[in-house]
Structure to design on (223 residues):
């Protein structure tokens, strides 16, 4: 039972190779759709989403450098796609693994820290003590702010993976009870599963947006 419960999170395939990670790059097959002669409605919706995200991220970053929002829009896109594709049957959800989410969060955080402490050292020191802090509390605030800064990539990664795992486990647990139910309860279970699927779809969008927005806010602190 326990093995079947977590089998959807196993990256190994039948050949005992971790080939399920290839689902991460399946989005490349969809990207060329924007170059079709007759663009689809989905393409217009996606362009609208990217435009909205660009304007929001640009305001959060507070810089006029062209292309500064590209990395965060790309981050949102890859997480959103992997979250959504994991809702389909028999498709591996790579974002449910810390190996994937931490690989996205840690390099970004390290880049921000190296850039900030190298180019804006005084500004980074000023962030360790919030404005209006009493002098007696300053040493404690420095420790608290330092710890909160260090755990940022971990919280980003764990938040994303935990939300993906929780929803998938709940749907798996409910699905495993199906063979033991009568027809009336089975209809209720199917309806509940559909509601959970809608909830997981919303969580997929929200978590990818939260990850991208928080990464944008962290980058704005080092400017």
């Amino acid at each position: 039972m326990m093995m079947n419960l977590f089998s959807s999170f196993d990256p190994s395939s039948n050949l005992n190779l971790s080939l399920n990670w290839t689902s991460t790059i399946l989005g490349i097959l969809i990207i060329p759709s924007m170059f079709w002669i007759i663009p689809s409605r989905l393409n217009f919706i996606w362009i609208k989403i990217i435009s909205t995200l660009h304007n929001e991220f640009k305001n959060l970053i507070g810089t006029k450098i062209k292309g500064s929002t590209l990395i965060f829009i790309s981050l949102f896109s890859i997480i959103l796609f992997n979250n959504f594709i994991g809702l389909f049957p028999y498709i591996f959800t790579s974002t449910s693994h810390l190996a994937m989410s931490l690989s996205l969060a840690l390099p970004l955080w390290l880049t921000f820290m190296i850039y900030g402490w190298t180019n804006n050292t005084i500004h980074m020191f000023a962030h360790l003590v919030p404005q209006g802090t009493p002098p007696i509390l300053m040493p404690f605030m420095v420790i608290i702010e330092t710890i909160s800064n260090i755990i940022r990539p971990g919280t980003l990664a764990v938040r994303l993976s935990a939300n993906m795992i929780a929803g998938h486990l709940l749907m798996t647990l409910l699905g495993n009870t199906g063979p033991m139910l009568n027809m009336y309860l089975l209809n209720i279970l199917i309806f509940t599963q559909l509601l959970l699927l809608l909830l997981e779809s919303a969580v997929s969008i929200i978590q990818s947006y939260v990850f991208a927005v928080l990464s944008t806010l962290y980058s704005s602190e080092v400017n």
